[in-house]
Amino acid sequence: PARLVVLVSGSGSNLQALLDAAADPAYGAEIVAVGADRADILGLARAEKAGVPTFVVKVADFADRAAWDRALADAVAAYTPDLVVSAGFMKILGPEFLRRYDERTLNTHPALLPSFPGAHGVRDALAYGAKVTGCTVHFVDAGVDTGPIVAQGVVAVEPDDDADGGEALHERIKTVERSLLVDIVGRLAREGYRIEARKVRFGS
Ligand code: GAR
Question: Known NCBIfam families for this protein (predicted)?
Fold first, then answer.
C-alpha cells in the first residue's frame, strides 16, 4: 500500500475518515504517521486511538519559519511517505517542504478554488453572497491554495446559513469533503497519477 502522512491542526474529522477507509487493506493506502503544528488536539487523539504514530512540530520552537519548515519536512521524511495529506493543517507549507514533497502533497480546502482561498474559505464565501460553494482537493504548490486541482464537490448555500456564521454550512461541506478526500486519496494510491500542465491524470 501507499504510505501516507497526514497533517492536522484541529478536530481531524477528515483524518478519521482516512483512518476508517485505510482499515480496509483493499483501500491501497496506509496512514504511517500523523503530524501536527500543536499538541492536545482531537486529531492527534484520533491517531493515537488508531495506533498510528504522531509527531508535533511547533513554529514557536524554531528560530524562524524556514527552520520550522525544514524540521517539519524532516519529521515527515522519517516515515518515508508516498503522499502527504494536509487535512485541516492551518499552516502554509514552506519552500523546503515543497521541494522535497513536490507533487506529493495534497490539501483539502473548504471552498471551490480558485474562489475563496486562505484560512476562511467558508466565511468568505458566505460573506460574498455565493449561492454555491464546496470543497477542493488539490496538490500543494508554492502559492496559497493555488496548486493543481484533483477534484471538487459542490454544496448549496442556504438562506439561513448566515445565522450561525457558517458553522452549519461548514458541516455540510465537511460531509462532502470527507468522502471526496477518501475517494481521491484511494484512487491516487491505487492507480498512480501524473500532473501535466496543471491537469492531474490517474494511471501510470
Ligand atoms: C476542513 O474543512 C478543511 O477543508 C479546512 O479545515 C477543516 C478541517 O476539519 N481547512 C482549511 O480551511 C485550510 N485552509 P477537520 O480537522 O475536522 O478535518
Answer: PurN (TIGR00639)
Query: How far apart are the C-alpha atoms of 116 and 125, rounded to whole Å?
Result: 6
Alpha carbons within 13 angstroms on the beta-carbon side of residue 127 total: 8
The response to whether 7 counts as a known ligand-binding position is no
Residue 81 has pLDDT above 90, yes or no: yes
Give the Cα separation of 44 and 73 in Å (integer). 18
For residues 153 and 142, what is the distance between their CA atoms, to the nearest angstrom?
23
| Interface ipTM | 0.99
Distance 88 CA to ligand 1 centre (A): 3
Residue-wise pLDDT tens digits, 93-147: 999 999 999 999 999 999 999 999 999 999 999 999 999 999 999 999 999 999 9
Global model pTM greater than 0.90:
yes
**Which residues have a catalytic role annotated?**
109
CA distance 45 to 12: 9
CA distance 174 to 153: 10
CA dihedral 134, 99, 29, 13 (to 10 degrees): -40
- Is 46 marked as a binding-site residue? no
Closest CA to 135 of 180, 167, 72, 96: 180
What is the pLDDT, as a whole number, of residue 204?
A: 83
Atom of ligand 1 nearest to the CA of 10: 16
**Is any ligand 1 atom within 6 A of the Cβ of residue 134?**
no
